[in-house]
UniProtKB/TrEMBL annotation:
Residues 183-362 form the PCI domain. InterPro entries: CSN3, PCI_dom, PSMD3_C, TPR-like_helical_dom_sf, TPR_PSMD3_N, WH_DNA-bd_sf. Residues 399-422 have a biased composition (Basic and acidic residues). Component of the 19S proteasome regulatory particle complex. The 26S proteasome consists of a 20S core particle (CP) and two 19S regulatory subunits (RP). The regulatory particle is made of a lid composed of 9 subunits including PSMD3, a base containing 6 ATPases and few additional components. Interacts with UBQLN1 (via ubiquitin-like domain). Interacts with ERCC6. This is 26S proteasome non-ATPase regulatory subunit 3. One of its GO terms (molecular function) is enzyme regulator activity. GO terms for biological process: regulation of protein catabolic process; ubiquitin-dependent protein catabolic process. Transmembrane segments: none annotated. Keywords: Isopeptide bond, Phosphoprotein, Proteasome, Ubl conjugation. It comes from the Eukaryota. The lineage of its organism: Eukaryota, Metazoa, Chordata, Craniata, Vertebrata. Belongs to the proteasome subunit S3 family.
Length: 431
């Protein structure tokens, strides 16, 4: 793909489409005239003799036409790519060949990307549903995985989270899908769960998406997942690890989220509003702005907790001033809710207008250490279970050293005869 250019495509189309001049002329119409061959250009032998008169295999023809779609898309010629892609999808729609499944899955992906670039993503939703139904009936795991992810991307692109959640609940993602498709599916599922306030489940799926993602590539995907994961962890009341903000591939893109984390950790509402105002457009582009707005309550809770730890007794007016609230009445409501939610241990004196903090109890006498250990143990067990499920063995390679049923019967018979001989020897040894 990296060496794909007009010269290579022109030679490939002319060299392979020797039996179908109509398709050859149609595809060549989207290419400029080739330039003179350079020394570094790819050399290959076109089809000659009997092979030239034989029709191309469907998967070979689809792959060559897919290369043209990729070339036009990379050069931002989306309207022309749309015409070639429509023709390609019409050809492979009636084919039911297992060898074509993987190529067809790539065709679906680039077909959807072209329509997304043309701002016509919603027009192919019914087409994707139809192809998903066909792929499911044909047990096409590659096609199922790609089409499910494309439909989820389509719904989330237009903020149709209810429809996306129904699709996830009514469909089964194929276990045989490759890790890249699994990572995409887990990321989309995590976004849905986060919007629906299921933050614990969202964190689990997003963490699994990072595990499934390639280690040394897909930097953009990992940046996107980390952004959403950081916001979800903040909504859970946890502070993300500082090390992930220092990774070279993530440091620059996560800088706004690092400042956001600092504001939430310190409970500084003024700094939180400043970060939101400065990077609001970026958060909207990342699709995390709606979730970040919910963090305001977490910032206020953190601020109340910090005040409770710093002062044994403080007036509601001072709390309102520190949290930049409109009135002491607002501070009273917020403190009362924090006490009810168990954020702080304190009591409110309504007559005199102050908050009295209770003595801090020993944290090791509570369930917090147990819950922390439970979370870490569950994390380790999940990694172990996923590693076991991801293991692959060649067919029948595990039982080549095992004995057959006939060999087992012979061994058991020999053991019985040996036991009888031992018993007879023992009887003969006594007078």
């Amino acid at each position: 793909i990296r060496r794909l250019n007009t010269n290579v495509l022109h030679k490939a189309i002319c060299g392979f489409f020797t039996n179908n001049s109509t398709t050859r002329d149609f595809l060549l119409g989207f290419l400029e005239e080739p330039m003179e061959m350079a020394d570094g250009d790819v050399q290959f032998r076109p089809r000659t003799g009997k092979a030239a008169s034989a029709p191309l295999l469907p998967e070979v023809e689809a792959y060559l036409q897919l290369l043209l779609v990729v070339h036009l898309t990379n050069n931002k010629r989306y309207t022309e790519a749309q015409k070639v892609s429509d023709d390609l999808l019409q050809k492979i729609g009636s084919k039911n060949r297992r060898a074509l499944d993987l190529v067809a899955a790539k065709c679906y992906y680039y077909h959807a990307r072209v329509y997304e670039f043309l701002n016509q993503f919603d027009t192919i939703r019914s087409f994707l549903h139809t192809r998903l139904r066909t792929a499911t009936l044909r047990h096409d795991a590659d096609g199922q995985a790609v089409l499910l992810n494309l439909l989820l991307r389509n719904y989330l692109h237009f903020n149709l989270y209810d429809q996306a959640e129904k699709l996830v609940s009514k469909s089964v993602f194929p276990e045989l899908a490759n890790n890249n498709e699994w990572a995409r599916y887990l990321y989309y599922t995590g976004r849905i769960k986060a919007i629906q306030l299921e933050y614990s489940e969202a964190r689990r799926t997003l963490t699994n998406a990072l595990r499934k993602a390639p280690q040394h590539t897909a930097v953009g995907f990992k940046q996107t997942v980390h952004k959403l994961l950081i916001v979800v962890e903040l909504l859970l009341g946890e502070i993300p690890d500082r090390l992930q903000f220092r990774q070279p591939s993530l440091k620059r893109s996560l800088m706004p989220y690092f400042l956001l984390t600092q504001a939430v950790r310190t409970g500084n509402l003024a700094k939180f509003n400043q970060v939101l105002e400065q990077f609001g457009e970026k958060f909207q582009t990342d699709g995390t702005y709606t979730l970040i707005i919910r963090l305001r309550h977490n910032v206020i809770k953190t601020g109340v907790r910090m005040i409770s730890l710093s002062y044994s007794r403080i007036s509601l007016a001072d709390i309102a001033q520190k949290l930049q609230l409109d009135s002491p009445e607002d501070a009273e409501f917020i403190v009362a809710k924090a006490i009810r939610d168990g954020v702080i241990e304190a009591s409110i004196n309504h007559e005199k207008g102050f908050v009295q903090s209770k003595e801090t109890m020993d944290i090791y006498g509570t369930r917090e250490p147990q819950l922390a250990f439970h979370q870490r143990i569950s994390f380790c067990l999940d990694i172990h279970n996923m590693s076991v499920k991801a293991m692959r063995f060649p067919p029948k390679a595990y039982n080549k050293d095992l004995e057959s049923a006939e060999e087992r019967r012979e061994r058991e018979q020999q053991d019985l005869e040996f036991a009888k001989e031992m018993a007879e020897d023992d009887d003969d040894s006594f007078p």
